[in-house]
Amino acid sequence: MEKTNDDQQFKRNYFRIALEYAWSAKRDKKRKKYCKWVRLAAIRFIRDLERIENDPDCPFYFDEWEANNPCDFIEELPHVEGVWDDPTIVLEPWQIFNTVNMFGFRRVSDSYRRFNTAYIEVGRKNAKSTWAAGVALYTECCEGENGPQCYTAATTGKQARIVFNVAKKMVERTPDIVEAFNLNPMASSVVCHDNGGFLQPINSKASTQDGLNPHFALLDELHAHPNRELFDVLKSARGARKNPLSMYITTAGYNNLGVCYEQRTIVTKILQGVIKGDHYYGIIYTIDEDDDEFDENCWIKPNPNLDVSVQRNELRGYADEARISPDSLGEYKTKRLNVWTTAKGAWINIHTWAKCQSQINIEDLLELPCYAGLDLAATQDFNAFVLLWEIEKQVIVYPRFYLPEEIVKPRTERGNVPFQTWASQGHILLTPGNVTDYAYIEKDVKEHLGKFDIKSIGYDEWNATDLVNRLVEEEAPLVGFRQGPKSFHPPMQDFERRYASSKFTHGNNPVLNWMASNLVARRDVNENMAPDRKNSQEKIDGMVAMLMAWGLMLGPEEDKTPEVVVL
Hints:
This protein has 2 domains: 12-336, Rossmann fold (3-Layer(aba) Sandwich); 350-560, Nucleotidyltransferase, domain 5 (2-Layer Sandwich), CATH 3.30.420.240. α8 (229-237) links the parallel β8 (214-220) and β9. Strands 5-6-7-4-8-9-3-10 form an 8-stranded mixed beta sheet, with helices on both faces. Strands 11, 12, 13, 14, 15, 16 and 17 form a 7-stranded mixed beta sheet that branches. Strands 1-2 form a two-stranded antiparallel sheet. By secondary structure, the protein is α/β, with parallel strands linked by helices. The radius of gyration is 26 Å and the shape is elongated. The protein has helices spanning 14-27, 36-54, 64-74, 93-104, 128-141, 157-172, 175-181, 229-237, 259-272, 312-324, 326-336, 350-354, 405-414, 419-424, 438-451, 466-473, 485-500, 510-518, 541-554; strands spanning 60-62, 105-107, 117-121, 149-154, 183-185, 190-192, 197-203, 214-220, 245-250, 280-284, 369-375, 383-391, 394-404, 429-431, 453-459, 478-480, 504-505, 521-523, 529-531.
């Protein structure tokens, strides 16, 4: 469709519908209809529109025509599965909201889409395949791309063909679209002769072939991918495109160590403001942690198509089975309520944490008693040294982080955590080479021992290194800190109380903010807590070091005296 400023060319004002949806979610403070993550996505949308209005240096803008056009295109397509009142698709507000977000925001630098990645997690039977097929056809036909390669991808050929087959049937049943874009639907490809593009299904075996240069790649049911091979191949292959879009659409799963939960975690951190992600769009439809899983009023949260493609009576049947069968309960929660049944939740409320970000003037702390924690990791990973003071019941934390300089760039490129930016801002101290230079850390620790009144430094006595040996030989005040619930529970309990009442200051260090959002707690049979490295989605070294220092601060005075360490 030719781009004009005339809104009457569209069936509906989709942008207005998306904006109304966003305001409805934002106003739902008690989360009766929208879960936490949908509300945060709505707030992000509204704030980004305000940012465009108020910030002359904002790197993106919003184009209503670009937002409306894909919605209008999709609503020209026919239903090809099920029985519907309308012969053509009528997008629901939640689908319009997501489409408007993905296509309406544009980069100031080149007018291409702001978002090159989109993660949408929603319960089963919410018409994901129909909507995704429409998006796929739009990217193939309507984005002005030369030879757009568009793929529906999955781990198996059968799964990859689900969305492709829907798209192919849509084309076959719409002669006007065939004629308008000179399309040719074939067994395993929908070819667009106008621009030399195609839409094809692809699985993990085929993805190793040469020649992949995707303009659009849909990874369907990302939770089912046993490894990240297909994900990485398609992500790296899009590098030659100026306006690519990787779309991950999935229900919840069971593997919280896989690529899907990794991407989900990135989305939650972007929505919470822990990390920036102007290129990444994401939304999660699920129940909230305090919801009753059998309360029908909550079903709309993970099922925005409730009473449209998701039938309430069918959900009642699944709920009835789940009440009496543990196996059915897991399936019900994961696929119908979109809950990751093996994923453990973050221990820290990042919004409460954010209220404790007052700036720190280190020079005011030079002569005050200080406690520290030293968390030493593998030679190619984070090491952390965290200092801590207590002043009139207010705990002040000052962290130091170390990484080998040669692994920062690949780690930044592998994920969506801005290690390189943090390093350039001085929040991560880089040691020379591709492995940790412990001499560099040793020098830094000694400098701080000379600068501050450090009473003791907690460390993992079962993970001692030559660095610890050298510091002990020089009579540094090291104290072994056992890594279990008995040792960690008192500082974690005290920390919970203080940060909840803003009796804690972390100085808004972005690396510590990120690690705080990663922290998962494990509990023993007596409900004593400790940091859970295994189930924490990403690094928590700074938090472990902080809690060791906190434990030393809380201990009886005699326990704070450095003990003789036998190594």
